Every structure is written in C-alpha cells, then in structure tokens.
User: Fold this.
Amino acid sequence: MHSSDIPQIMTLSERIYGEGSGWSAKQLESHLAVFPEGQLVAVRPTEDGDRVVGMAASLIILWDDYELTDSWRDFTAAGMFTNHDPERGRTLYGAEVMTDPTERGQGIGSALYRARQRLVERLGLRRIRAGSRLRGYHRVAATMTASEYVDDVIAGLRRDPTLSFQLRRGFTVIGVVGGYLRNDPESLGYAAVIDWEPEIPPVLPSETP
Assistant:
C-alpha cells in the first residue's frame, strides 16, 4: 500500500461498511507509518490508472499481551495499529481483508490471503490470527448460539460468507467470542477466532501457543 492509495481505500471501505463506518485517513496513515509491509492492496489497471479492488491490513502483536475474548478495538488500538510490536511479537494479526463487491469471485481475496501468508513466512512469524466476523449469524440467531452456528459452518452444514472462505484458506477456529465488533447488525458482535500456521514453524523464543 502507498499513501496515494488511501483515498481509494477510504471510498471502498465506505461502500462496504456504510458512510461514516469505513477506514479514516488518519488510521490508514498510521498503518503505513508503523508497519508498511503489512498493508497490502490489490489493484486493477484501467485507462485512468490503477483502481484499488482489495485491501488487507495487519499488524504484529505478542499474543501473550491479549485475551482470546478481547475486541477488535483492543487488538488494533482502535484501528490505529499503534500497538504494533515487531520486537516481541510473533503473531500477525489480521485486522482487515476487504474486496470490491463488484469484483468478488475473481480471486482477489485469495491473492491477499496468500500474500499475507508469504509475509508471515518471510518474517519468520509463528502464525496469523484474526477475528472472523460471523456475517451470516443474524439470520439464525433466534434459534442457535454463535458457537452452534460456527460448528455448523466447520462441519459444512451451512455457509458463512467470511468464515467459510477462511476455512478453505487453511485457517482453523480456536474459539468463538462475543463483543468483538460494536454495533454490527450482521454478526451481532460475534466472531470466530481463527488461526493459521506455516507448515514449517520457525524457531522462536517462547510464546503461548
């Protein structure tokens, strides 16, 4: 990601999350200041220049500093990434992956996930972890718990737009938490905590699995 991409990322995020709910210029500039390598974009060339069609935002944390039940705001310092800790941290925290709704099904999300996995391998990190927003849970919340919903998704009995995709990318679920995102009508605040580790783990100082 480059600073010149910021206006397009802001526009894209507002299209996805609604006006006033997307990434701010202040947040995106902070991401670039603290961890430029972890900020990825997918672009499509056009006659008018490159068009941003996807973005992934990440930071490095020491997992021992957090609880599994912490919220997105806790893990990302309210979206500023000022808690980025490359000196002690061995976990890449995936704060965001988004793709242009008009471009879905074109492999953009998969390419961003692969690039993030290559980054973990190149930096010698232990894992990727993230909160998977349960976008389909609101449809069944009256009849089942979030944990039951996740179990069904893992078993292939139902599909979640986000979690099903991540499971196909090699992630596993290590927990289900509430209060992850505030005021999210799709997930009702629930998320699956997901984990991905390289096939050949790096030799690292001790950190809680």
